[in-house]
Amino acid sequence: NADGGQSLYFSRGLQAEVDVIAAALSAGSATSVVQIFKRDAAGSIVAQRLRQRLTASTKLELVDATPVTALNAMMPGAAVVLWLDTPSLAALPPLPTAAPVFVSSTFAGGTVPHSAPLAAQGPITWIQPFALGDEWQRRSKNFASFMRKHRLQGHQTRVEEQTWFACRLFGDALLHVSR
Do the Cβ atoms of 165 and 131 come closer than 8 Å? Predict the structure, then answer.
């Protein structure tokens, strides 16, 4: 960057989320997938990557929708993938399905929205770039405990949590380096 510093990034980011969602959908019982995303560059690219991954490995029917057309795109038994930011998630109408719902934490800014449509949906798989499901919840609780113990006030929870986790990964890796 301009000041001569460089970033070190440990995550495959959205591609890791695509891979995890594709694996879960391939192993699940859904017969179709509805991807809901904004038609901007980021939303279109990630939706296309999931489409390519699933087309190559499954026979799932894929339907792309925007937040506005989501209700019209729903099919019985469809899994739902939400590539949306927090305001779009909050504005999403209730989805008429009991099928699995996957939410990208990267698009949502790392905060779980407590909007009525998603809360009423039932179980939601919150996809994180570093860790998933129970593992992410465990790590998130450990981070929150660390922050409380040291009386630290977070301002950008997602960035701080991921930085903390990356430092832990780095520290663990250093323990295995031989001299």
Answer: yes
Encode pLDDT of 101-126 as tens digits: 888 888 887 655 555 455 555 567 77
Tens of pLDDT along 63-72?
887 777 776 7
Report how far residue 54's alpha carbon sits from residue 113's, in angstroms, rounded to the nearest whole number.
27
Beta bridge partners of 112: none
Model-level pTM greater than 0.85?
Answer: no
78-91 core/surface letters (b: 16 or more CB in 10 A; e: else):
bbbbbbbbeebbee
Measured between alpha carbons, how far is 152 from 83 in angstroms, rounded to an integer?
31
The amino acid occupying position 85 is D
Element (H, E) at 34: strand 32-37
DSSP secondary structure string for all residues of 66-126: -TTTHHHH--TTEEEEEE--HHHHHHPPPP---S-EEEETTTTTT-----HHHHTT--EEE
For the chain, the 3-state helix, strand and coil shares in percent, each to the nearest 5, are 45, 15, 40
* 149: three-class secondary structure by DSSP: helix
